[in-house]
Amino acid sequence: MFNNPNALLDTLIIGAPAYLVIIFLLRISGKRTLSKWNAFDFVVTIAFGSILSTLLLSKDTSLLQGALAVGLLVFFQYAITWISVRSNVMQKLLKAEPSLLLYQGQLQHSILKRERVAKGEVLAAIRSSGIAAIEEVEAVVLETDGSFSVIPKFNSESRSALADVKYLPTAN
After folding, report:
1. Cα-only R_g, the chain
2. Which terminus of the chain is more solvent-facing, meaning fewer CB atoms within 10 Å of its CB: N or C?
3. What local confidence, expressed as pLDDT, does residue 147 receive?
4. Sign of CA dihedral 35, 39, 42, 47
5. Is 86 in the same domain as 138?
C-alpha cells in the first residue's frame, strides 16, 4: 500500500512545524496579507499553498527553505502594498477601479456587460442591503475586490464616496 512508511513519518514531522511557521508568518505580516483578494493577493495565496504542499510532500525541500519562501512572499506582499499605498501608478497596476453598475435607479447596461455582472446579482445585492425598491438606491458599485456596495438615496448633494468610481455620470 505504501512504498515507504518513513515518508508518512517525514510528512508528519515536517508538516506540523511547516504549518505553524506559515501561520506565524502570516499572523505577523498583518491583516492586509489575508484581506479581500485582488489578483495579486490570489497569486500570493496560491503560492503559499504550493509552498506548503512542497514542504509536505518533497524530501528535497527543507523546513528552512519553506520558511524562507513564505517569508519572501510575505515580504513581497508587504513591500508591494506599502508602495501601492504611496504610489497611484502601482495601485493602478495592482487593483482594478470600482465600477458603477446602477446609478440613481438606472442600471448601467454597458458596464454590467463589460464587468460580466447579471442584473440579478445587482438586485440580490440591493435586497441583501435591506432595500426593497431599486428606486431607493443612489448607486451600486462593483468594488475592486469583487464585492458590491449599495448606497441608498441620500439628501446631500455631495457624492464624495463615489469620487473614484469609474464612469460616474456628471449630470443628474
Report:
1. 22
2. N
3. 85
4. negative
5. no
